[in-house]
Amino acid sequence: MTFQTSFTAPHYKATQAGQAILDAGGTASEAMVAAAAMVAVQYPHMNSIGGDGFWLICKAGEKPVAIDACGGAALNIDVESYRQQADELPESGGKSAITMAGTVAGWQQALKLDSNGLNGKAMPLNRLLKPAIDAAEQGIEITQSLVDASEKTLSRLSHLANFAARFLVQDEVLKVGENLTNQPLANTFKHLAEKGLDDFYRGELAKQMADELADAGSPLTLNDFVQYQATVSTPLTVDISKGSLYNLDAPTQGLASLLILAIYDRLVDQVTSEVEHIHLLVEATKQAFIIRDQQITDPAYLDAPLQQWLNDDVITKCAANISFEQALPWPHIAKPGDTVWMGASDQYGTMVSFIQSIYWEFGSGVVLPSSGITWNIRGKSFSLDANHHNVLAAGKKPFHTLNPAYAELKDGRRFVYGSMGGEGQPQTQACLFSRHLYQGISLAASVSKPRWLLGRTWGDSSNNLRVENQLYKQHGATLRALGHDITIVADNNELMGHAGAIMLDKNGKVAATSDPRSDGQSLLGEKNDH
After folding, report:
1. Architecture in CATH of 236-336+401-528
2. Has this prediction a pTM greater than 0.90?
3. Exactly one of 27, 339, 350, 374 is catalytic; which is it?
4. Res 494 pLDDT > 90
5. I need a surface site. Which of 146, 202, 241, 322 has the fewest CB within 10 A?
């Protein structure tokens, strides 16, 4: 059997780095590590190796394997001191940098599981990291996406000296087309290539980062680094008419992504128009989010396994709660987020669905000067309410919007797909999946056509349905008549996420796409005998 290779990412340089590894005979996971390092350089506002990651590694003929590479709260965090200072956790600086960074440990686990490609040998780490090293040294071209994020975060982060030194010029945001270097980050990748990825947690680099986090006021210590391990687990799954769907377990919102499509699948035979398609997906989203917000937390704190929420009775009840004539009122408070999703398919038949994030744009704004690493702000997902199921606690993992998706279809095709966008991730997944597999729209058009987003985004007080302009012109009046509270946004709006997908058919041929809302690209390799 021969398999065509493919890679897709929201920045074309990351796609090129990943595809180059695939073309050289590397595995999908090796390609993903190369791209993950590169995208951390090219899209510093969206992700960093100071953040978290989640993987689905899907080998031909085997059940997919999940990797949870998210960090928990500092082991010695003083929760009461945070409660005494404010009702909410801080939004910038060292006091907001309270959760461990797991993404590099995720890379490490993925390479253990999937790095015996060409001639049964693993690709050297220095080869995987070299594109990112070169880019950090030579500089990246500033994109509009980076400028927009910089303008949005200026008031929140400009007071942080190390952030300003790295991402601002005389306290002003960088301009599109300018060059940005990060020599400390290049040196960090060189160090990891020489010493190994474990050095991030139990070596010289760990000690350096722990010291600089302490200097910034973070409660994280070297003990948090030393004790951290990414975990390998079984993903959640649900069967629908199209096949078997897979996504990440707690603490991610993978449950919501699966529920939306499972609920919609129960109703799709009654859909007679595009307006009904949109309306039912939005209403399925509401049902899924109600369950999500009541249940998902650190796996160690769950009342019961999340898989039980994917049974027939739950899905049937949710579907029955949906009206074709009237939208459910929606006061829901959304979860913001900035992330990258990437997909890979290698010549050995392995597919990878991967996500990497620091949560809000530029995370906590804490930039570690010696390593050039920006630390995440995922701790903002915690509550300080002692009675909340996501209350902050030492070592506890926060709720995650991240959730890479995978499907094995009844016609033999296999499908990795996903998006950045926090609250919008499961909605965008459902949109592109339903367009392609229920409506027969091409993969590229399923991603590029105008989309919608339910819920409040960070910095906004409304909970309404955002609709891109062209979609509103077509269906806005009818959606309003159904009771949807709508706000119009510009076409190709980054708010709608950076989606991507790779479809592998039973003959080993792939189709792939990336989102015109990003700086992304999808590439296809040649089919290879092996």
Report:
1. 4-Layer Sandwich (3.60)
2. yes
3. 339
4. no
5. 241
